[in-house]
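Checklist before submission:
- one chain only
- standard amino acids only
- sequence pasted in full

Submission:
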Amino acid sequence: MSTILWADDEIDLLKPYIIFLQGKGYDVVTTCSGTDALDMVGEQDFDLIILDEHMPGLTGLETLQRIKMVAPQIPVIMITKSEEEDIMDQAVGSKIADYLIKPVNPKQILLSIKKCLHSDELISTRATTDYRREFSAISGLIDGASSIRDWMELYRRIAHWEIQLSDADTAMDELLSMQKKDADVAFARFIRNNYERWVSDIRAVGRPMMSPDIFRQRIFPELDKGEKLFFILIDNLRLDQWLAIKPLLAEMFLFNEELYCSILPTATQYARNAIFSGLMPLEIERNFPELWVDEDSPEGKNINESTLITTQFERFRRKCMFSYNKVNDSAAGEKLLREFSNLFDNDLNVIVLNFIDMLSHARTDSRMIRELASTDAAYRSLSESWFRHSSAIGIFRRIAAKGYKIILTTDHGTVKVDNPVKVVGDRNTNTNLRYKVGKNLACNSKDVFEMKHPERFGLPAPNLSSTYIFATGRNFFAYPNNYNHYVQYYDGTFQHGGLSMEEMLVPLITLTAK
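Returned file contents:
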């Protein structure tokens, strides 16, 4: 039973209201002054406080301020006769839970109490009920998806319900997780059947927008309008993470949201370089060998991004004054903000934000970060917290203030892995857990996507006999020697490079300043 403290100098006249609330299961304790209310808060635990604004002695606002000093966790509902905006502003500024203007009826008060005390429970119950109704529709989509549009719609629904059910104390989120696993199995089958056709023919029927298409299909048309444009790439940004940070930008921008399909491997070296060059990795290696970094090279895999952008503009015979900035830490972000005015003369400004990628790697390497991001919901929350408190949101504010447009995207997503798959390869095989490229690769699972002829898939082959294999679903590759170490160290980590909806179907958002 929830206990409510109600302070009003005319409390005797409110007996019918109190009886009504008691009939609804609430224990209502009353007092007629703010001073007594403060004393009672110090002596007894309350779940909610109702304050009349106009009381002799301590006013409702004064009582509210003192309550917030000693018990800030207790929600407070303010009831007043006054409609003065200043009083409302003071009450809202003091973080009241709700504000009611007399005359009020018992049902209004009950609704406010439910909003304050039971909203999470009611939302969870409603989400559970709604998902139960949606379950069959999602299962039907999994069985019937026959185009990439179908898969994108299905993934949007799954991401929506993951967020809706993340706080629900129910078995529904486990049921959704099972549906998602089933969906990824079917999605991998769909990609196996269609991927080679997509990458070999950009005019193939049903081909989605892919990594090399983004500049040609989204950036160039905006530049042709003569508008100043920012292209912001947040590495490793999944759809659910975008949905988590979206509310932080809603006051500044209007959104046009879509998904595109990252190329394989869903890794920076391949997918992001394909975006900036407008080419498949094999084409980069052949046309610009000095800009392609091999798997076994100690060099960074994304050190030539600005130059790759230049090659794309030159190939399409386009003149464009652009800047390129990469933000790897808070110091780089603050430096960019200090020098931000220098960007406004450019036609295009490209900004790469690497935090989420660093977070996923830190989660693998740091026990503390693993604890903080132990679930997908926690991972989303950390991403939202970073965005809220970092220089990233300052960048978006500066752009919105100038009225410029933003194309926001990522190079690939990431997936939480929990199923080790044994793989054997030669000593030159790469170390990524979601894909392998090398000679004589052998895997003990049929749940892989194998490319025996990499050139057909737009991928370079380090050797004539090199093949690629990709983990699907939530699998990750582990070597038989030191197998237990791999399993213990990497189980439950977020990885990318392989074939899953979360890695391949990623957000592409056009943000227009309000």
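Reviewer check: The CA atoms of residues 17 and 23 lie 10 Å apart.
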